[in-house]
Structure prediction request, 633 residues.
Amino acid sequence: MSKRIYYACQGVSYNGAPLAGLQAIGINTEQSVLPIDEFGSLDIILVPNQPKISINISKVLDSSNTTIYNGCIEDNINNHNNYLCLFIGSDTSKNIYDDPNSVISMTYNYLTLDSVSYTFSLNNNFIEEVSFIGYSKETGSCPDTIQSLSGLPSGNIVKRRQHIAFPSGLPFPIQSGSTINSININANFNTNTIEEFGKNIIDTAKKYRYSTLPIQVNCDIEVLYTGYIDFDGYPLDIPNSFCDYTGLSSTTFIYLDLCGISINIENCMLQNIDYDGGSTDGSNVILTYRYVAYNNLTVTNNV
Amino acid sequence: MANNRVFYASHGVALAAETGDPTATGLPQYAQMQTVGGAQSVTMNTNFNLEQVFQLGRLELYDNVVTDPGVEMTVSKVLDGRKTIYELAVGSGSIINNANKRTKFAIGLGPDTSGELSQSSGAVIVCDPAFLSSVSYTLSVDGNFTEECNFVGNSKKVGASASGLVVAAPSGGGFTVLRRQNLNTNLSRLPTDVTGQNIQSITISADFGREQMFKLGSQNTYHRYVTFPLEVSCEIEVLATGLDALEVDIPEAPCTGVTLPNQSGYFVLCTPGTTGGFTYYIDLGNKLKLTSTAFGGGDTGGGNATITYSYVTYNDLAIWTSGVEVPAAS
Prediction:
């Protein structure tokens, strides 16, 4: 038996394919516990309630040009057939599949994507983080064998700051040619289940789940401010007459080309501009533009 | 014939300061390349700054990413009446005015059988742009007055010598290496703590930081800025003729505290025949503040006791030269 489990001892296959570039996985199995009081006794009756599994995954984006979240929001929130197998192997093997006899596995079925986040920064690898919720897990029983992880690539080119372009320009009002320091995109799908009488766990085969609409998609873009005049385009003059509106009213879109992966957020609107930094510690002024869209996030693999 | 070695006569350093607007887009414009006269040493380190990425399921490396490759160069020279490295790199004046200026840095190599580095031989390494990242001046009673500058950059090209990029340093005629007699104490303004004392050494240094600035869409650095506030330090060592007379007496009364006066740091270095004017002018402004004094020495080894006064100021350093430059041959 291993003395410890570290990164090389774990392997994950997702929907039949080994997950490459995986950096971290976290699994939380919980059940809520309801305390019930009753007359005549100080003792509490504890009632276990709905168990749930939450899985968080972080992976680098690389030259395989594949992401876990793929397609538009409808494609992902209505797909409850995802499954994930976590393999745990020996801490003395170079590859997890080298010693199949020492490998154990856990299978998580009928998973639903619950949130997605992308982080693109100047000094780190490009990262995708997703979370799943599920209600079914079993020891072993993975449709994929441990040998399937031999398909893990021995190396890919990890995407960093040079692997991004803005073919359609920058969203208004960010000026063309601005220095972008970081971009963060996130969406939380708030997946809920529909309970039914007769069972404490929904029948996963029937997959009664839904996302709480509308799904808000946030995109924060940090820009280094260099002193140009119109840095926010956000006039806030008092309206001249009744029924007039002042402020930013136009929608825009955000399109990112990650050299093989594209991210598209349409019909988004600037919600917030934050001017910060440039304090006496010598830091630079940074403008943070927050855009918000609803039900709109498309990630395309292998562009 | 290939060199068997590289020694001082077979390599040289040349610099060119940016002349155009540093904020303009496009390639920087430079003055004519000028050889650093009186150069004593040059070093160049190239780093590729790797970052390792692994993945779950495999022990082996997933990717070994080259993050921010960079080059660091150090040049030292004796002060001899010719332009300082600082002035050749960014021009004379204050560091604030020159903070964004870029430098073209070249090291040229010649044959080890020639007594002079000429423009027509050997390889050239060019770093364009390079950024001045630190400057240091050492004036001591023993030894020559020296200047040492560090540069950082993210570009390095190697090629054959071309267009007279590096020329041989001029002969020593007409230039005098500065030593202890060349500190003009009459024109210089020194902190009052050391006035009238036997000064043994003065060290002035500033580290510019030079943080790299990146942008999404490009691996390259598009600018390296000076990290303000910029600390400028000055250490003056004097021969102790008594004890360190600086008192520390913290008052008890409210609304009172220990205060130290602001001092001036203004160093004029001259060459024979120019006693009325100056050759080098290093100005630390008038807000130098004493940060520490250190009394030591005078032990049974027979050495003399010394007191070292350490001063600091911020964002205040200006350097001028009235020396003669040596232009590169066209």
User: Anything to note?
Assistant: The CA atoms of residues 222 and 288 of chain A lie 4 Å apart. Chain A touches chain B through 46 residues (CB under 8 Å).
